[in-house]
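Q: I'm writing up a methods section and want to include an example of the input and output format. Could you take the sequence below and give the corresponding predicted structure tokens, formatted cleanly so I can copy it straight into the document?
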Amino acid sequence: MRLSHCHNFHDFQDLARRRLPAPIYNYIAGGADDEVTLRRNAASFEAVDLVPNVLRGVADVDLSTTIMGQEIDLPVYLSPTALQRLFHHQGERATAAAAERFGTMFGVSSLGTVSMEELAKKHSNPQVYQFYFHKDRALNSAMMARAKESGIKVMMLTVDSITGGNRERDLRTGFSIPFRLTPAALAQFVMKPAWGINYVTHEKFSLPQLDAHIDMKGDTLTIGRYFTEMLDPSMTWDDVAAMVAEWNGPFCLKGVMSVEDARRAADIGCTGIVLSNHGGRQLDGSRTGFDQLDEIVQAVGDRMDVMMDGGVTRGTHVLKALALGAKAVGLGRYYLFPLAAAGQPGIERALGQMKAELVRGMRLMGCTRIDQLTPDMLRLRQG
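A: Here is the clean output for your methods example:
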């Protein structure tokens, strides 16, 4: 199978499955516990139908929007995700370059494998720095100061990961950083020699956002231990309010799911929130971002930018979220599988398909601008 044969999300996923060792593929693809929420993320969009309008004169379609003060050409952005150079040697460099080509925003994770400074210097499109709340408050301040010095405008604090989810696929394979693989999993790496050659012939794997502050090398601290030992489960709204004030700029909370929490985020001065269940990787059985979108937009949509992610694989999914009031929609696995399959060309092909689907969908819905998408264009499927 070749990149040119990839016409949708599932094709990219299949190509990534063929090219990645099984433990790494399953790290991307898997969710927590029974993966109920992982499945519901995608299924939630199927419960809502689009009601199109016709004869509206839609020769020209404008997909641009503004989120948290950042102007972007598409109503989708590339969500911050960890360990990208593990999936393909280009990692975040491919993600940032593809996002820039399509004029949209990308995120860099605290567990990213390319430094935020390098990407900020090289690319002019908006960049978000995603970070976690540590027990060491000085470390939190140092990481925010470093982001500000690099020119990053938007901070994104992940609030649904004060402890790691129970990802049983990883437990079965022994996936961790550094690798502690089971014999069966090790055999999967042997079966994919191209990935191994690629991995060892490019720059050494590192976590530059954390390496300056924490010894993540060798066997000293695996990713799992990072979550269980360094992140602070006692984090409160007062802690976050102090960070919002310290940053003094666009500040977003990722992982908000309740109306009460959305209101509190607005109260402490957050610029935006992302309705997210972490791709079904944290609390299994939780609601989906799309299912929570309508009531949260009605509660706080006039006070902050509301975004969502989870299960988005089609342009029509994005249109449904926009119709409910989302300012933009985050993409995760949608671009990670293309990255794993083919690097930057893979992500660009996937984004090109998303853009084409959005333009086509807008025309068929009778809309020329995304603010013309409204809730009355949707119907909840009964039964």
